[in-house]
Every structure is written in structure tokens, then in C-alpha cells.
Amino acid sequence: MTLNNEQAITSADKTFYQLRNDIVEGIIPSGCKLSETELSTKYEVSRAVVREAINRLATCHLVERKANVGARVVALSPEGLVQLYQVREALEGMAARLAARYMSDEEIAAMQGLLDSHFNKVKGGESYYQEAGDVDFHYRIVTGSKNSHLISVLIDGLYHLVRMYRVQLGMAGPRVTTAFDEHRHIVNAIANRDEELAEILMRRHILYSKNNIEKKLNHA
Amino acid sequence: MTLNNEQAITSADKTFYQLRNDIVEGIIPSGCKLSETELSTKYEVSRAVVREAINRLATCHLVERKANVGARVVALSPEGLVQLYQVREALEGMAARLAARYMSDEEIAAMQGLLDSHFNKVKGGESYYQEAGDVDFHYRIVTGSKNSHLISVLIDGLYHLVRMYRVQLGMAGPRVTTAFDEHRHIVNAIANRDEELAEILMRRHILYSKNNIEKKLNHA
DNA sequence: AGTGGCTATATTGTCGACATTATGAGAAAA
DNA sequence: TTTTCTCATAATGTCGACAATATAGCCACT
User: Fold this and answer.
1) What is the 3-state secondary structure (H, E, C) of chain B?
2) Minimal Cβ distance to A147: which of B83, B147, B148
3) Does the model's pTM come out above 0.90?
4) B65 nearest nt, CA–C1'
5) Is the CB of residue B48 inside 7 Å of nucleic acid strand C?
6) Which of A9, A10, A46, B130 could serve as a FRET partner for B144 with CA atoms 20 to 30 Å apart?
7) Does the CB of A75 fall within 7 Å of any strand C atom?
8) What are the tens digits of pLDDT across the range A164-207?
């Protein structure tokens, strides 16, 4: 689970987070219609706050809204997944480049320490790594870019969609050790302040990741 | 002016477009506070629709909102401009790559025709090209990527911020002919289905554009 | 005079009711 | 039987009022 430093202060925030979680986890299934009145009774809040929550979900591309008709949970498709990873490749590639430029030495050291601890857990046989570790790694790179647009588009937007695909298409799977090595190489490039290499490696990393998921998707 | 195929159907849409335009054009100055009650009387709509419009503006990064405090028009800064162009470089580079892959021959031919007509106008001494022409060109590349995420992030989001910087920092300026040549080379790469080159050229094009604006900004 | 806390006020957050639009069922006509 | 029109219904869009919160000003106290 993503460790949320985003805390709900208003009632609409809370409803938004709950709804988002329910959608990502598949509790509200893909393609399902979101009735404002229904949700307002279910979550025990006014229709106005449900409306605001749905609007925010729409900007995350987790639901699609049509005027005077309503909102539906986004439909998952192979094409959608491909498009998602195309954008991730561009955005996270740039994030890695900027991380190599702007991350402080302390941040880089902390990230190397993170990878070390992951390595021990993987070596110890824990499958913990796959989800939380991967999320944590990419999260640090993105925030390390110090670019508010990159941060908001990826962390507030695309990552939830990525998680939705992973959860609902049952991507718990492997690619642990190979992904780990790729992470290592990326961090090394960042530590060497090699922007060009950091970007290339990150793009390859995401491309491999996409191919892996696509392969699984076609076999299922 | 951007030719809007986005048409307002609901009242909130109209208010959103009006507000967005007023902000981009500087009619509502940068840093200005947006009072919901005040705007609701000004635009003669309910506070609820103003609220929704402001929320949408927040997702475009045109205003910043704080809970229980309100929304302010975003402040323009050199750092903000740099970050904006960093994201543009990543996103539009990928868009050019995908355009080379997915655009139909007819679309490419139409784009070449567009450049020809621009060339005639530039040769004829019209300064028309700078704004509308540039917008049109980039618009076609992005839509040519057929990637809904790229399209929405760039066209619904970043481009308005770009325009806001251009308008408010008085970037009417030159770079017409050189930018035109760069456009030509990009279209040629796309026509040759050379994804790699299309992306590289687009990234360079945006990098140059950024440097040009930064230079002006420092001189002013 | 400066600082701390309190109150008044204005703004945002939330709510329920009304207006408007889309959609499906059913009747009438071909 | 099929098609089209009408109308009922249920949803979204919009509104004004109330509740909760932040901010500024004022007063007391040191």
C-alpha cells in the first residue's frame, strides 16, 4: 500500500480517497456507473461532496464523466495500458534525468540504503519487494526531480491507474530480481550525475515492465 | 487564439472557460485571490458552479487552492517556466515519436500542407505565424500521438499555462523563421516514420524555445 | 509599547430542494 | 410486427441557506 502523506482535511477529501481506493482495488468494478445519490447515501455525505470527489476522480482518469449523463469507472483495456506506459516512459525518464541533476547527495545515499534493505529482503525470500518496494523506488525518483508537474501528474494521477491495472489484472508476479538490478543501475547513474544514462535506463526499465505485463495479459 | 472545439454545454463549463481565459490573458492578475462569492455575482451564476470551475482550474495548475482558505491565481516564476518546459520536452518528445508511428498518411500530408501555407504567410511578411501557427502545429502532433493521456495533459492542461507565460511576459516575438525550419524537420522525420529522430528533434525544438524565452526573461 | 488571547466577520465547506436533461416504457400509427 | 411519438421517471445540474473554519481587529495584561 502506498504510504499516504496526503491526509484528508475536508469531507470531500475523505470521500475522494475512499472512492479512489474502492475503484483501484476493484471493490467498485471497472465500467460500473457511479450514481451520485446512491454514493451519497452509502458514504453518508451530501451529494455535493460526492460530486466534487467524482470530479477529482475524473481528472485522474479513473472515471469518465459525460455531461447530464453521469460518471462511469474507466474501462481497462490493452490499449489503455499501452498508452499509460508510453506516458510513464516519457515522464519517468525525464524524472530520472532531473533526479540526477537535482537530488541532494543525502537523498541519493538514502535511496541507495533503501535498495540495500530491499536486496536483503529479496535475498531472504520475502516477496515483499514487488509492490511496496517498487512503488517506493519510483516515488523517490519522481519527487527527486523537484518538478511539481511531474510529481502531480505521476503521483496524484497515473500511479493510481497503474495500481488499478496491477490489482485487477492480477499482476502480483515476478520480475523481482531483474527489476531490482535495473533499479540498481538507475541509482548508480544518478549517483554519478549521469543524466543521459539515468533517463535511458529508466525508459528501458519501464519499457521492459510494459512488455512483461503485456505478455501476461495476452496469456491470460 | 486557440480554435476551441471544446464547447460548453453546462453552465459550469462556460464559467470555467471564461475564468480560464481571463486568467491566461491576465485580466485576472497573477497571484490574485479568487473569491467564490465575488465571482458568482460577477458571472451571474451560483457559487456551486464557480466552485466547480475553480476546482477544474486547480487541476490545470492555473490556480492553487488551500482548504478552508481559498484559491489564488498561480504565480509566474522563472523556476515555474523551467519546470513547465521540462515536462513539455518529455511529453511532446514522446508525442512526436508516437505521431511518427500512428499518424495516417493523410494526416501527415495535411500537416505538410499546413506548413506550406504557413511558409507562404511568413514569406509574405505576415507575423500571423508566431502564435496561431505554432499552436496549430504542436496541437496536431499531440493529437497525432493518439494517446489520450498525452492529449489531455498537454492540451487541456499545460498549453494554457504556456500561453499564460507567453501573454503575461510579452512573448510575442521572433524565432519565427528558425522555429519554422525546426517544424519542417520534425514533420519530415514523421513522414519518414523515423520515431527516434522525430522525438529528438521535438525535444531540441522545445529546449531551444525554452532557452529563447529564458533569455528574454532575464533581459527584461 | 509589545504580546497574548478573544471576539467579530467574512470566506469556504456542506446540505437539501428545485430545475433541467436524458432515457426507457408504452401507446398509436404504418 | 415494426416504428415513432409521447410521457413518466430518474438522474444530473443549479441554486440559496446554514455550518464550520480562518483571519483580522481589538482588548486586556505584562
Assistant:
1) CCCCCCCCCCHHHHHHHHHHHHHHCCCCCCCCEECHHHHHHHCCCCHHHHHHHHHHHHHCCCEEEECCCEEEECCCCHHHHHHHHHHHHHHHHHHHHHHHHHCCHHHHHHHHHHHHHHHHHHHCCCCCHHHHHHHHHHHHHHHHCCCHHHHHHHHHHHHHHHHHHHHHCCCCCCCHHHHHHHHHHHHHHHHCCCHHHHHHHHHHHHHHHHHHHHHHHHHC
2) B83
3) yes
4) C12
5) yes
6) B130
7) no
8) 998 888 765 556 567 788 999 999 999 999 999 999 999 999 99
